[in-house]
TrEMBL record:
It is found in: Membrane. It catalyses: [GlcNAc-(1->4)-Mur2Ac(oyl-L-Ala-gamma-D-Glu-L-Lys-D-Ala-D-Ala)](n)-di-trans,octa-cis-undecaprenyl diphosphate + beta-D-GlcNAc-(1->4)-Mur2Ac(oyl-L-Ala-gamma-D-Glu-L-Lys-D-Ala-D-Ala)-di-trans,octa-cis-undecaprenyl diphosphate = [GlcNAc-(1->4)-Mur2Ac(oyl-L-Ala-gamma-D-Glu-L-Lys-D-Ala-D-Ala)](n+1)-di-trans,octa-cis-undecaprenyl diphosphate + di-trans,octa-cis-undecaprenyl diphosphate + H(+). One of its GO terms (cellular component) is outer membrane-bounded periplasmic space. Its EC number is 2.4.99.28. Residues 91-379 form the Penicillin-binding protein transpeptidase domain. Keywords: Cell membrane, Cell shape, Cell wall biogenesis/degradation, Glycosyltransferase, Membrane, Peptidoglycan synthesis, Transferase. This is peptidoglycan glycosyltransferase. It comes from Candidatus Shapirobacteria bacterium CG10_big_fil_rev_8_21_14_0_10_36_6. It comes from the Bacteria. The keyword Chaperone does not apply.
Length: 547
């Protein structure tokens, strides 16, 4: 500039002195919601082209709630800071209104300007991550669609699925705790996120049907293509397939909204620099991907704190006091992905934690110590901004008192509970699982008719557990083998073997005078009626009359 005559040599020296003390700052994005902004920008570029978006002076009104956005960003950053000791370096979250699909907040990483965690990468829209057990509700939804109920009995017992491909090992699903709980209702199985029962349920409903339902709900990576059907096995119900958070949020919005799914929306209105409206949001009806009754059953199960008590305890981070909130956690077996996603009828919050380089985390307990603290804080904060709502009970939903174990209508004074059913799916008739038998007092076996007549018996409770193996190709029932093996190691195993034979088989005969009865006054001519019973076949009955 001196050579060109713009400044004097003295001015050059003075400027150099000022620069010595000048502090330069990195060129960082100062947007309040950068991941959301660039997501919206990408949508607009796809519609109008980059030149128009960058240079045409567009005015864009979005769905973002800046108060919620700032709070979510704050919570994610604070909780990930606390979780670094667990080997967790990043987190993402989004908040949507499931009644219309509008995105209220989107945090794609703990910090957009963080080079340490590749903060510019938007996990919400760009991250293909495994959902772990967070995908299980879709498997159980398919079971409900096929006539199962929240009361249906599923045995949590060891099971092995034979390999159908050369070189592959047989598959034996394991539970997170390494233990098997035996008889569980579908409500308990889903609420406690039991792996074995989820895989059994998938085997019953079919992998292709589950993938079709997932794809119909908006999980685009789970399309039931020939390639996916070859690639995915029964572990897909445990989260063994990649999904995008934005798709999972859209899909589960249908559970919150009576079975209707909406494509997620970030843009309400776009105007050019002259004020002409290029596009404007209009309400749509959404796509019905399940019935209101099916959506209610799943949401009711996942909002039932007692249904998850075995795994999570009565006091847990998933229970939001004063609100009916359905929630599902998920953790991959290799500890690379950890999720919590939960909803009310007018709010859905999805949270993921992990590492962008896909390295495993440390000790993360089923979503409780990773994503759940973030999810809980966001849910507590955002529910205050919405009208409080419980899940509405649709028509054709009935509540019945059922046997606590078998799911049949309550009977014989056994422990029972209330359960919701889609009318017509409730189990009726004689309970073939939870039995009451009259047994001899002095020895094993059923009481004989004479013992019963003489009140010489005890009443005892029994269970009879059996399952068919729907995937067996060799006639061998491996599911029943697993049940029998579980029963064999129970301390009270006698109650699982109801007697089928009488305790006495000595040919004892019982004779009853049906008419006339004792002390009855009779005329000279009267009929005598006698009934007999025996443990063996009666060939002849003779009657002697004295006098």
């Amino acid at each position: 500039m001196v050579e060109d005559g713009h400044i004097t040599p003295d001015q050059k020296i003075e400027a150099q002195k000022e620069l010595e003390n000048y502090k330069f700052y990195e060129n960082k994005t100062q947007l309040l919601s950068p991941h959301f902004v660039f997501w919206v920008k990408d949508i607009l570029i796809e519609k109008y082209g980059e030149d128009v978006v960058d240079g045409a002076g567009l005015k864009i009104i979005t769905t973002l709630d800046l108060t919620i956005q700032n709070e979510v960003q704050k919570i994610v950053s604070e909780e990930i800071d606390k979780s670094e000791k667990l080997g967790i370096s990043n987190g993402a979250a989004m908040v949507i209104d499931p009644t219309n699909g509008q995105v209220l907040a989107m945090v794609g990483s703990r910090g957009y300007n963080s080079d340490k965690t590749d903060g510019k990468f938007n996990v919400v829209t760009q991250g293909l991550r495994q959902p772990g057990s967070a995908i299980k509700p879709i498997t159980y939804l398919m079971a409900i669609k096929k006539g199962y109920t929240a009361a249906s009995l599923i045995m949590d017992t060891p099971v092995t699925f034979l390999s159908t491909s050369p070189g592959q090992k047989d598959y034996s699903p394991q539970n997170y705790t390494g233990k098997f709980l035996g008889p569980l209702s579908l409500r308990q199985a889903l609420g406690n996120s039991i792996n074995t029962t989820a895989v059994k349920t998938l085997a019953r409903v079919g992998i292709s049907n589950m993938l079709k339902q997932a794809f119909d709900m908006g999980l685009m990576t789970l399309e039931p293509t020939t390639e996916n059907l070859k690639r995915f096995g029964y572990a897909v119900t445990l989260g063994g397939a990649d999904v995008y958070m934005i798709d999972l949020a859209s899909a589960y919005g249908a559970f919150a909204n009576g079975g209707k799914r909406f494509d997620l929306v970030g843009i309400l209105k776009v105007e050019d620099q002259k004020g002409r409206v290029l596009e404007e949001y209009k309400e749509v009806s959404g796509k019905q991907v399940m019935t209101p009754q099916e959506a209610f059953i799943i949401s009711n199960i996942l909002s039932d704190n007692s249904a998850r008590e075995i795994t999570f305890g009565a006091v847990n981070l998933l229970n939001i006091t004063g609100y009916q909130v359905a929630v599902k956690t998920g953790t991959t077996n290799d500890k690379r992905d950890n999720w919590t996603i939960g909803w009310t009828p007018n709010l859905l919050v999805s949270v993921w934690v992990g590492n962008n380089d896909n390295s495993p985390m440390g000790k993360v307990a089923s979503g409780v110590s990773g994503a759940s603290p973030i999810w809980r804080r966001i849910m507590l904060s955002t529910t205050k901004t919405r009208n409080k709502q419980d899940f509405p009970i649709p028509d054709k939903i009935i509540s019945l008192e059922v046997d606590k174990i078998s799911g049949y209508l309550s009977h014989d004074g056994f422990a029972s509970r209330q359960e919701y059913f889609i009318d017509g799916t409730q189990m009726v008739g004689t309970d073939l699982i939870h039995l009451q038998a009259k047994v001899c007092k002095d020895k094993a076996g059923l009481a004989t008719p004479e013992d019963v007549a003489n009140n010489n018996f005890n009443t005892k409770e029994f269970f009879k557990f059996s399952e068919d193996d729907p995937v067996s190709t060799d006639g061998k029932n491996r599911w029943q083998e697993g049940i029998d093996g579980w029963i064999a190691i129970q301390a009270d195993k006698d109650k699982y073997f109801p007697p089928t034979d009488y305790c006495r088989t000595d040919g004892m005969v019982t004779v009853n005078f049906d008419s006339p009865s004792d002390r009855q006054t009779v005329s000279n001519n009267f009929d005598i009626k006698i009934s007999t019973s025996s443990l063996k076949k009666i060939n002849e009955v003779k009657l002697w009359v004295n006098g």
